[in-house]
Design brief:
By secondary structure, the protein is mainly alpha-helical. It has one domain. The protein is 65% helix and 6% strand. Strands 1-2-4-3 form a 4-stranded mixed β-sheet, with helices on both faces. Strand 3 and strand 4 form a beta hairpin. Helix 1 packs antiparallel against helix 7 and helix 6 runs antiparallel to helix 7. The two termini are 19 Å apart.
Length: 309
């Protein structure tokens, strides 16, 4: 008899897959640099070049991560034009009650609540740690979901907070940003470098190969890995949200409604924000394909949630 997967099975499976995907980032990055430089120089020199490139890149990632850690959450909220609301606002008092109830059930501090002035249906969470986390909801999602559905959405966002997904996404965005910048620097060095003798021509060839490695990583490997991680974290947040509310059907029902109108106009030009929302906030026409999608197919998410009941 086939075993029926529980919420715990879904959470464990998605966490293992996420960990494996995260490990792939530095391993593939290092392997690409070595393999590309090995084309033009001996293996020993290729290994030395790889270390000379990889170590400074990692250091730059940590420095930039520190900056993102300090200002990333406020930048995300600002990008969405989100405004903080207080618990003494009569119009949103029921929202605060729902957030408090879900936070209590999740065993997490009550986050700040922000409203996005958009009639579409979407939501996201941000913050460096659970203690300074925030949940942002569009006006549309508040108006068009019933109480249980909205609590399911809030539980999904609280799951992202509890699972430290915001921190993970911040690390990935930072790493990608540094490698893109490094690739641009390398390209300029190749174009404007002085190649007057054989030794310098050899250096130029190495730089070109390293730049090609960065380019392949930035344009193909990095998006594929990051989107795969994003999809796994969405599945994990769905499962954890269902566990918090003990009502997977409510979140499944909310997703059916949300996916029909999830576009947030303020985020049309902020592609990096797509992964943190409960559903793709961009124009549906911009969808490229499953491998580059920030979210799993809604049908698959709903199917998994309904199987957890």
């Amino acid at each position: 008899m086939k075993k029926v997967k529980t919420v715990y099975d879904h959470i464990k499976s998605n966490n293992i897959k996420t960990a494996l995907l995260v490990i792939c980032f530095p391993l593939i990055f290092i392997a690409l640099i070595f393999l590309f430089t090995w084309i033009v120089v001996p293996a020993k020199q290729a290994l030395e070049t790889t270390l000379q490139v990889a170590i400074p890149t990692m250091i730059a990632c940590f420095v930039w991560l520190g900056i993102s850690w300090m200002f990333g959450d406020s930048m995300m909220l600002s990008s969405a034009n989100a405004k903080e609301i207080s618990d003494n606002n009569p119009e949103y008092k029921h929202i605060f009650q729902s957030v408090e109830n879900v936070a209590l059930a999740a065993g997490l501090p009550v986050p700040k609540v922000y409203i996005i002035d958009d009639e579409s249906m979407n939501a996201f969470a941000t913050g460096r740690t659970p203690k300074d986390a925030s949940v942002a909801l569009t006006k549309g999602i508040i108006k068009r979901l019933d109480k249980l559905e909205l609590e399911g959405v809030i539980a999904h966002e609280m799951a992202h907070i509890g699972n430290r997904d915001i921190r993970l996404d911040m690390i990935l965005i930072t790493g990608v940003g540094v490698t893109v910048f490094a690739a641009d620097v390398l390209l300029r060095a190749v174009i404007y470098g002085n190649h007057s003798n054989n030794e310098k021509n050899n250096s130029a060839a190495i730089l070109l190969m390293v730049w090609l490695a960065f380019t392949v990583f930035n344009l193909i490997i990095s998006p594929l890995l990051r989107m795969a991680i994003s999809r796994k974290r969405e599945f994990a947040a769905d499962a954890t949200g269902a566990y918090i509310t003990r009502n997977p059907h409510a979140l499944a029902s909310a997703l059916r409604k949300i996916t029909k109108d999830s576009r947030i106009e303020a985020l049309d030009k902020v592609k990096s924000m797509s992964a943190v929302c409960i559903a793709e906030p961009g124009n549906p026409k911009e969808f490229i394909g499953d491998l580059f999608a920030t979210h799993p197919k809604p049908e698959e998410r709903i199917k998994r949630l309904e199987s957890m009941a």
